[in-house]
Amino acid sequence: MQQSLIFPLLILSGMLLPLDAGPEWMRAIAAVNPVNWVVQAERALFAGDFGAIEIAWGWVAALAVAVVGLWVGIRAMRRSS
């Protein structure tokens, strides 16, 4: 179940494939994909642009993904027991 969710998120984040030449619908989905924001933050950090706003949005997105993942994991464990 998790792989069927994470793989499209990775494809639509621009981490595996460049999105610049992709179709408009793909770029629109990538704009709201939290993994894309984390990737943009990592690129800014690797470029040495430590004051970029993408880094702040990357932190927000990473925390949101972590909270949702924790909630889903706890819920799944409670249901299994």
From TrEMBL:
ABC transmembrane type-2 domain: residues covered: 1-80
Subcellular location: Cell membrane; Membrane
Superkingdom field: Bacteria
Similarity-based family: Belongs to the ABC-2 integral membrane protein family.
Entry-linked PROSITE patterns: ABC_TM2
Membrane topology: Multi-pass membrane protein
Pfam family, one: ABC2_membrane
Transmembrane stretches, start-end: 55-74
Protein name: Transport permease protein
Coiled coil ranges: none
Keywords: Cell membrane, Membrane, Transmembrane, Transmembrane helix, Transport
